[in-house]
Amino acid sequence: MIDARKLLLLVAARALIGDATPVDVPKETAIRGTVGADALRARIVQQRRQLLAPPPKLTVSEWADRYRVVPSYSADAGPWITDRTPHLREIMDCFSDPSVNRVVFKKCARIGATEAGLNIIGYFIHQDPSRIMVVQPTVDDAKEFSKEQLGATISDTPVLAERVASGIKESSNTILLKSFPGGSIVMGGANSPRFFRRRTVRVIVLEEVNGYSSDIKAKGEGDQLKLAETRSATMTYRRKTYINSTPTTKGNCRITKEFESGDQRHRFVPCPSCNHFQTLVWEQLKYKDLPEPAYECIACKYHITASEKDAMLAKGEWRATRNTASTDTRSYTINALYSTFVPWTTLVREWIEAQDDKEALQTFTNLSLGEAWEDRELQDVQEALKARAKQYEPDGAAWRVPRAASALFCGVDKQHMELHAVVRAYGPGEQSWLIDRVVFRGDTTQPAVWAELDVWHREKRWRHEGGALLGIQGMCVDSSDDPNPVYEWTRPRLSSHVYAIKGGADPNASILPKKYTKTHLKSRLYSIGTQVVKKRLLARARMIAPIPYTLDAPGRGFMHFNERANEQYFAEFFSNVFERRAYRDKQVTMYVLPPGRKDESLDCEVYAYVALQLVAFNSTFNLEEEWVRVIEEGEKMQHPQPESEPPKPEPTNTGGWMSSVRRSGKWMP
């Protein structure tokens, strides 16, 4: 006999699979179970329809307005409202438009690009389940993004929380992998080549692509953008790619190149006075002699105030400025003048504070103006340096080192088949002069090229203008790649101030470490703060020379260059660019070498300067005292003292009668 409980379970099971066939039960059981079974059946069928019904067709912005909840990490926490960031509406809606496959967003900071990416991800979890790949600059960035932004968004947005596995111990849910019915989200770092292998996805989100390291490409793995987009190639017309980043330096900026490959859309907004549509540019924001900053309309010269800003921005529209038939990429660019989060007064203050600091000005250009930095002064600086990079000494003169110099220091950069060396003289106040530049060619894993360097280091002398002969006071040799030959060569020469060094990873590290590291070959290794030295030397190279220019007039910190500094030298010396890169879960600014460039001259100059610091650190060496000693030594060499006559010997006692007279002082005894 079937009791009422079993009857209800049977009815529920059939309802779940859509089977409405009545259950054949004994008469006495049917009387007791009919009412409860019918009610349960109706309730289950209704829930089944709700679960299996397709979600309403929405655009990404409509989905975000209806469902998305911004977590507490944001100052604008709570239900998402696209009207607060009207510039994001079209960008997000590209991903619910079947005709758009690829979107590039060249942006400033504080504009909502990452939040737009989270809305896109949420849409493809809830509305159109798909496999999603998110690429951050580093693996640590990906973990931080997952824990602090994506994870919080999923847990705070109910329609996402009920779809994404939440058990941390479940294999379908880890920090870098989230699973949901019909799809998944995999996250990783662009610094991990293996991450791009053996994956097929439909939706790709590439965050801050200018922070992607060039090391992978240099090692033959290929460009990370291409590696990532290859993962969705089989999805053809269904694939979706979102690429965003703030710009870096002109000529070396990935996001600028991607933006220029698209239809180049700019945001046009109407003037509240004349209704003329225009893009907002920094030059039109006026603040001098005004109570508060105001934007001057390019057409009617009306001053648009901050109180009119939001209404103007809400009426904006995106306009393509390039023929859309020639590209399948929609590309957008925007600056912080459009930001609803950043007041114009804040931007003006940041601009004024950056005026006396080139690096701060570059940061403002990248993060606030959303533009690639172009160092317009650099070309002028290089031309000025080339113009005065001439032989110090007059033709026929025997000296090579100018009179104001104290000592010589050398930096050696090791390549696989070459040793590059630069010798620079330093004087009081760290004024310096390029003296020599040499390349020793040979396999640096073999002893022959090191023997050649050894002879040069021991025997080479340069004559000081004061007359003294100077050898190399201190030398640093780079050991960052294949260090063993460097350790072996420097160990027996430590007493001659020859040091093995390598650049430290920390971009904020001081020039010298607190303590050296003892290597497995029992030599000393110093990890140095190359970023600090590069910043110092590149700033010194930009110092303006006095008129008329002389070899000793400029003074403290000034750098002189002779004929050894040719076109190649200056190309290498100014090869690095100042960019933001990921370091320990943070974006920091540092000097980096763009792909395809060489920087041997800069590295050698950095190592020569570190040699000066190490000699002073490990001894009582002082540039001022050394200069006095060198001048005195030169004077002795130029004006040797005549040899003095030997003193006449005292007469000795030979006996005889005169000796008694001398002893007594009398003529007679």
Task: Show the helix and strand layout.
Blueprint: H1 4-16, H2 27-52, H3 60-67, E1 69-70, E2 78-79, H4 89-93, E3 102-106, H5 113-126, E4 131-136, H6 139-156, H7 158-161, E5 173-174, E6 177-180, E7 183-189, E8 203-206, H8 215-218, H9 224-230, E9 240-245, H10 254-261, E10 265-270, E11 277-278, E12 285-286, E13 294-296, E14 303-304, H11 309-314, E15 317-320, E16 329-333, H12 344-353, H13 358-367, H14 376-388, E17 407-414, E18 418-426, E19 432-441, H15 447-459, E20 462-463, E21 469-470, E22 472-478, H16 484-490, E23 498-503, E24 517-518, E25 524-528, H17 530-541, E26 559-560, H18 567-573, E27 577-583, E28 586-592, H19 600-617, H20 623-638, H21 657-664
Parallel strand pairs: 3-9, 3-16, 4-7, 4-8, 8-9, 17-22, 19-26, 22-23, 23-25
Antiparallel strand pairs: 1-2, 5-6, 6-7, 10-11, 10-15, 12-13, 13-14, 17-18, 18-19, 20-21, 24-25, 27-28
Helix pairs in contact: 1-2, 3-5, 17-19, 18-19
Helix/sheet category: alpha/beta
| CATH overall fold name of the largest domain | Nucleotidyltransferase, domain 5
In angstroms, what separates the terminal alpha carbons?
A: 167 Å
Would you report the number of β strands?
A: 28
Just name the CATH architecture of the largest domain: 2-Layer Sandwich
In the CATH hierarchy, what is the class of the largest domain? Alpha Beta
Beta-sheet strand percentage? 15-25%
Largest sheet: 8 strands, mixed
Summarize the amount of helix as a percent range.
Answer: 25-40%
Number of discrete domains: 4
Shape: elongated
- Determine the number of helices (DSSP H or I, runs of at least 4 residues): 21
Major sheet: arrangement of strands: 5-6-7-4-8-9-3-16
Rounded to an integer in angstroms, the radius of gyration calculated over CA atoms is: 38 Å
Low-confidence region ranges: 27-33, 652-669
Summarize model confidence as the mean pLDDT.
88
